[in-house]
Design brief:
heterodimer; A: 5-stranded mixed sheet; globular; B: 614 residues; alpha+beta; 8-stranded mixed sheet; 38% strand
């Protein structure tokens, strides 16, 4: 005790084994130190957590350092725009906001069609900082919201790991999740999307619920209801919670793990969570009206039946009577539930499952029925390589963790196993859902790592102790050493343990290196600014998107309507500050199909459509000069499909030659003369893009284009960016009739 | 625009015809030389006027006149008179100029009055140097051009000097850009030499003589006009002056008609788009640092910087080339070392900094300069070399409570000639510098204090709830356990001392010290076991310790056993020494005891570790 500065435990051990003469003195200090081991451990744990917290934050700042403090991708621009509106106009204006700048001429009721959690969170952070006299710009707050919440997620992961296994597993889980690429991909600085706060909310809800199940405490259940409320306010993925939790409860019921704790936890969480969730306008009464939420209600009723049966069982001593009673009750309960569900669905009170939900259960559903969902790249089924890319060693640790969980089955481990297995299935169905599976994979892997390391070190430590006592005795006794060898039940156990430990640490360090590499190379690009390596290894920046949007913002009339494919809608409204016809909130399929139809029609037909939509400018993205492959020509088939889905005059085979999509001389005549082709390749035929290639050589597709003599009748080139990536055309007013 | 100016001209001629009034005073301009430079978008006129007083009275005021359509666009006017004789010794002294009311002068003429340094007595001569800069006088004609066309502008002037005084001899030369000249008014004595157009000399002109000329030529200059420029200059006494400038730039040349074709714009060898400008050059003060260039939607990566000890040059390229009528908005910011700009005089500090924009050849229609002084500055006053509109504001920045005083200076129609230094005087005590760090420190202090209080204080609502009581009890149990542990540790330490005394014995053979050691350890151990008793009693009675107390009891029992064994061993050894038995003999006798001791010790340590884990 006292204020002596003590060496750490392992150090003093090392001195002991090497130097028996010093043993007595160091033994004292070691012993007096032992009293403080608890505090030491606490200190160590807090400092590790603190470091992990910081690590999770700074690992996500690559994009800010590489590029700048900016918003990434597509959806974040909408979120940024709404947050800006919220901070400028206040909450009520935000709640009642009718946005006439998008979906012209329909408009969009923003307040009622978004999950406000993210914006409100950022605005609260912003207001708090301003209250504390830190006058930061709202953009900085938005950019750093995702890393901040990722840091918070590590803390939740620690507590969750502690709850299901032990503190060691918690710490490992925190470290793993802090740098796991699967999570970083959606939470780098600037990725200001719903998922940024939603994963935190998801994990928090799960943690609080498991805590509530473990303790049976109302307080924790209440906490988890609020966590659920936050999740509902932040992301549509809350449906996962409202289905996983009942499923878990159902499994516990089936496996005979029903308890009062479970009853309290689930009822409180479900009822309060449901009532709270109804306060979000976008969700509204879905909890009682939509097919996706019916499972939770069914389980809730089942819980009541269980409770009732329990009570009856307690009242009745006769087992035979009870058995009959049980049969009657269960049958009638299921019958009543089934009838209610049937009547509800038939009368239209309970809405059927949505397309997105179907496409989760059946991966091929979207491709056949909803092209607009299938057209989004992040909705594609996941490739194996991206699992490897996003999880790395966790993919191998995951089954090991499952093994440990099954070895020590508790309510908590059952939950994490179920969370892991279901979310991993969904991750396989849709690329973006890897994100949801990441916390579970990290937690289960953490259990594997922690349990393995703990076993190995305990092996090492017992060995050391025996040799210690052997040496305490001092020189002269040969029996002690013989005793040591007797203790070893297996030969080379210690060496094996050391080798395995080294192996584990090697794996973990490879994981850390992989994560850093992936973060810096793959996930830190804002996708608004494109970067490439020049011939001399220098970095070339293509800032064409912003060039075009800024041109729109400055040099078009403020009420100009811009038509583009829906991908760029959010960016045009946020950066260009102009009205768009369609945007990334794909709520009206017909409207999008109209744009798709215009893009895939001949110019004069398209002109009529554009006139009817009051379009002033048309914006297309074209990568033929730079070799940028995700441009509108490559997306064109989706426009045809979506347009054709509503307007049968557009037929996909018209644009294909023998089932092949081409833009060169062999392309179909309809393709060569449709609006999109004309707008992308207008005057491109005169440009030499690559040395040694004919003019009009498309570098993105590697072909010479088929129609070099493009004349525009109703449109004129208004602006083309310096690398031709964005081209903007002005729709001419109709000529006077003669 | 053009039409209205033609109407202006007609009106002017009419007015002059009507008002052929006699000379204002008896001053005569013996020689007038005018040079007009139209290489940039600004028409810069320099005049050398030789004034002779031919009357009888001395004159202290000199009248300068411009046609109204020029006078309305006058951005800058300065009149100097040269002192000393001989060309080498000329030094210019600025004279004060004010706008005068045009009493007796036609409305179509703008009038300025110059106060002469000393009254000009009869027959004396004086040479005045007048510099005037006009904006918006180069009218694009045609007003709309396509991308491939060249940019033609038109200048209207008078070949003869418009003055209320009679002029004996005058000449005009117009310096045109080195490019195509479409047309110009041909009068007598008109010469075009290269790119310089000369009118005159004309002799013995009446007052208010006027002969309009029009020059139509190609201009390659950038017609960059900042419709609105806000310069924020923030003084931090931590060593930095932060300048942030927000530009709303527009190209005021002929507007672009029809398509903008990137292909033509980039075409080599004949790019089309000469009327557009791509770059602006800003000449920042030397030692400018932390320069950034951005706009509403982020950083703009196309800029270059060169710096040396004399200046810092920043070549900024807007996101897109600016054609006629196109606009853009951007912000540049830079830090400057405080020591270069802040000085002290007479107990007051003053900031001495340039007023206008650092961008070359930029006309600013409305310039707002905001000088943000540190929080707590007092007695603020401003001196400017020309008239500006002044007001004060408050700005809140990081960690401000009262806010920072802001001096706002506003001026319309600013040309690069206005880039003169202004001085902002204020009082500021250095104590105020510490307030913000102190605020931060106290903030963190309060945070930590609350953390400490939170961990130490008891916040449970119900002091009688069973869980709370159980927790209290458990805390007590833990405390007792710790005490038990420490006592056992002490026991073990005394055992070690005993062992050490035995080792000393085997080395020195001193039985007495060994016995003394034995005695002291005996009493020590007794005391310790006395201390242990109440603790054990407590553990046994406490219900929440029920699952630990057996272990603790086992521990204590083991310790007792170990103690006994040790004592026995000690006695044997000491006896052996007393009997002078051989070392080997003693070792043999204690061998079995020794083994047990080791085993016991191991068990005790295991138990201790187990208790520790609780």
């Amino acid at each position: 005790m006292g204020g002596k500065s003590e060496p750490t435990k392992s150090e003093s051990m090392a001195t002991k084994t090497t130097n028996p003469d010093l043993l007595n003195t160091s033994f004292f200090s070691f012993k007096s130190l032992k009293l403080k081991t608890k505090q030491q451990e606490l200190l160590l744990r807090i400092s590790i957590l603190g470091l992990v917290y910081i690590l999770a934050f700074i690992a996500r700042l690559f994009s800010v350092l590489r590029y700048e403090s900016m918003i990434h991708e597509f959806d974040p621009y909408f979120n940024y725009r709404t947050t800006l509106f919220l901070t400028e106009k206040g909450f009520y204006e935000f709640w009642n906001w009718f946005d006439s700048e998008s979906w012209y001429p329909l408009g969009r009721i923003i307040g009622g069609t978004l999950y406000p959690g993210l914006m409100v969170t950022a605005a609260l952070i912003y207001w708090t900082l301003r209250f504390l006299r830190f006058f930061v710009h709202i953009r900085e707050v938005c950019v750093l919201t995702a890393p901040f919440f990722a840091s918070n997620t590590t803390l939740v992961a620690y507590f969750f790991g502690k709850e299901i296994w032990d503190t060691g597993a918690g710490l490992v889980a925190a470290v793993l999740i802090a740098i796991c690429p699967g999570y970083i991909s959606r939470s780098v600085a600037g990725s200001y999307d719903n998922e940024a706060v939603a994963i935190f909310a998801l994990l928090l809800t799960f943690y609080l619920f498991v805590k509530a199940v473990n303790t049976g405490s109302l307080a924790w259940a209440l906490g988890s209801a609020f966590g659920y409320f936050y999740m509902v306010s932040a992301w549509g993925g809350y449906v996962f919670i409202i289905n996983l939790v009942p499923l878990y409860v159902l499994v516990l019921l089936i496996t005979g793990r029903y308890s009062m704790r479970l009853y309290i936890a689930y009822n409180c969480m479900y009822i309060l969570g449901m009532l709270l969730a109804m306060q979000i306008r976008f969700v509204g009464f879905q909890h009682v009206q939509s097919g996706e939420h019916m499972g939770a209600m069914g389980v809730f009723l089942l819980m009541q039946v269980f409770y009732f049966l329990d009570w009856v069982k307690y009242q009745l001593n006769d087992t035979k009577l009870f058995q009959t009673f049980l049969r009657i009750t269960v049958t009638s309960a299921i019958l009543v539930g089934g009838i209610a569900l049937g009547v509800g669905t038939a009368s239209g009170y309970i809405s059927p499952w949505t397309g997105r939900f179907y496409s989760l259960l059946d991966p091929t559903y979207a491709k056949d029925h909803i092209p607009i969902i299938a057209s989004v790249s992040e909705h594609q089924p996941t490739a194996w390589s991206s699992f490897m890319f996003d999880y790395h060693i966790l993919l191998f640790l995951f089954p090991a963790g499952l093994y440990f969980c099954f070895k020590r089955l508790t309510d908590a481990t059952i939950f994490i196993v179920m969370y892991g297995l279901t979310s991993l299935y969904f991750a396989g169905v849709m690329v973006r859902l890897i994100l949801v599976a990441t916390p579970a994979v990290c937690l289960i892997s953490a259990i594997a790592v922690s349990a393995t390391v703990k076993n190995l070190t305990s092996l090492l430590r017992t060995k050391q102790k025996v040799s210690q006592t052997g040496s305490t005795k001092g020189a002269g006794s040969s029996k002690a050493s013989s005793k040591v060898t007797l203790d070893q039940s297996q030969p080379f156990q210690k060496n094996g343990a050391i080798a395995l430990l080294v192996g584990v640490f090697y794996l973990l360090s490879r994981y850390a290196i992989h994560c850093t590499w992936v973060t810096s190379e793959a996930y830190s690009s804002p996708s608004i600014v494109l970067a490439a390596r020049g011939a001399h290894g220098n970095r070339i920046i293509f800032d064409d998107y912003r060039e075009a949007y800024y041109w729109l913002r400055q040099n078009t009339p403020t009420d100009a309507k811009i038509m583009s494919w829906w991908d760029y809608g959010y960016q045009i409204t946020a950066m260009g500050n102009r009205t768009v016809i369609v945007d990334n909130n794909t709520w009206n399929n017909t409207h999008i199909a109209t744009v798709g139809r215009a893009m895939s029609s001949y110019e004069d037909e398209a002109y009529d459509i554009m006139r009817s939509l009051d379009v002033n400018y048309v914006l297309v993205v074209f990568g033929g000069v730079t070799g940028y492959s995700s441009d509108d020509i490559n997306k064109f088939l989706w426009m045809v499909r979506i347009g054709g889905g509503v307007f049968p005059v557009i037929k996909e085979p018209d644009y294909l030659v023998n089932g092949e999509f081409r833009v060169d001389k062999g392309a179909s005549p309809k393709m060569l003369n449709c609006l999109m082709y004309k707008l992308c390749y207008y005057r491109f035929g005169e440009l030499t893009t690559e040395y040694g290639k004919p003019p009009g050589y498309d570098r993105a597709r590697g072909v010479e284009i088929g129609n070099k003599d493009i004349k525009l009748e109703h449109l004129e080139e208004a602006y083309t960016t310096s690398n031709w990536i964005v081209r903007i055309y002005r729709v001419k007013p109709p000529t006077n009739r003669l | 625009m053009k039409q209205s100016s033609v109407v202006d001209l007609l009106l002017l001629l009419l007015a002059i015809a009507l008002f052929a009034t006699p000379a204002f005073s008896d001053l005569v301009l013996s020689k007038v030389e005018r040079r007009i430079d139209v290489n940039s978008q600004i028409a810069r006129v320099t005049k050398t006027l030789k004034v002779v007083n031919s009357g009888s009275e001395s004159v202290s005021e000199f009248i300068l006149t411009f046609p109204k359509f020029l006078g309305n666009n006058l951005a800058y006017l300065s009149v100097a008179h040269s002192e000393g004789k001989g060309k080498s010794k000329r030094s210019l002294v600025n004279l004060s100029v004010r706008e005068a009311d045009s009493k007796g002068i036609p409305d179509s003429i703008s009038v300025y009055s110059v106060a002469l340094p000393k009254p000009l007595s009869k027959g004396d001569t004086l040479t005045l140097e007048v510099v005037a800069a006009f904006t918006n006088v180069l009218q694009p004609f045609p007003e709309k051009i396509t991308q491939g066309e060249i940019h033609l502008v038109m200048l209207q002037e008078s070949a003869q000097y418009l003055s209320p005084y009679a002029v004996e001899s005058q000449s005009l030369s117009i310096k045109l850009p080195n490019a195509r000249i479409e047309s110009y008014t041909k009068l007598e004595n008109t010469k075009l030499q290269g790119s310089e157009l000369k009118y005159g000399p004309y002799k013995n002109l009446q007052s208010y003589s006027y002969s309009p000329i029009v020059v139509h030529f190609e201009s390659k200059a950038a017609f960059a006009v900042a419709e609105n420029l806000v310069r924020e200059i923030e003084v931090s006494h931590w060593g930095n002056v932060q300048v942030t400038e927000h530009y709303n730039v527009v190209h005021r040349g002929a507007q672009l008609r029809g398509e903008f074709s990137r292909l033509d714009f980039q075409a080599r060898p004949n790019p089309r788009g000469a009327s557009a400008f791509r770059h602006l050059l800003a000449r920042l003060p030397p030692r400018a640092h932390s320069i950034y260039y951005r706009d509403d939607i982020g950083n703009i990566s196309t800029s270059e910087m060169q710096s040396d000890s004399k200046k810092t040059e920043l070549l900024i390229e807007p996101r897109f080339p600016l054609f006629g009528g196109w606009k853009t908005f951007f912000t540049i910011g830079y830090g400057l070392p405080l020591s270069d700009f802040l000085f002290v005089s007479e107990g007051k500090r003053f900031l001495n900094i340039s007023f206008g924009s650092p961008i070359l050849d930029l006309v600013t229609e409305k310039l707002i300069v905001q000088v943000v002084l540190p929080e707590g500055s007092k007695d603020i006053s401003v001196t400017t070399p020309f008239a500006v509109k002044q007001s004060q504001e408050i700005k809140y920045s990081h960690l401000d409570i009262a806010g920072r005083p802001v001096v706002v200076l506003e001026k319309n129609n600013v040309v690069p000639d206005h880039n003169q230094h202004i001085q902002v005087y204020y009082k500021f005590s250095n104590i105020n510098l510490l307030s913000e760090p102190l605020m931060l420190i106290s903030g963190f202090f309060i945070l930590f204090i609350t953390c400490i209080i939170y961990t130490r204080a008891d916040f449970s609502i119900s002091k009688s709830s069973p869980t709370y009581l159980a927790k209290l009890q458990w805390d007590e149990v833990l405390a007792t356990l710790q005490e038990v542990q420490s006592i056992i540790q002490k026991c073990l330490a005394t055992h070690d001392k005993l062992e050490a005394s035995l080792r000393d014995l085997s080395r020195t053979g001193d039985i007495q010290t060994c016995k003394a050691a034995r005695k002291s350890t005996d009493s020590l151990l007794k005391d310790l076991s006395k201390e242990l008793k109440p603790l054990l009693g407590f553990l046994q009675s406490s219900p929440s310790a029920s699952h630990i107390s057996p272990k603790v009891e086992e521990l204590v029992a083991k310790e007792k056993e170990l103690e006994e064994k040790l004592m026995a061993k000690h006695t044997t050894v000491v006896e052996g020494y007393e009997k002078k038995s051989s070392g080997r003999d003693i070792e043999n006798r204690i061998a079995s005891q020794q083994q047990k001791i080791i085993a016991l010790r191991q068990e005790i340590e295991d138990l201790l570790e187990f208790i520790d884990e609780i």
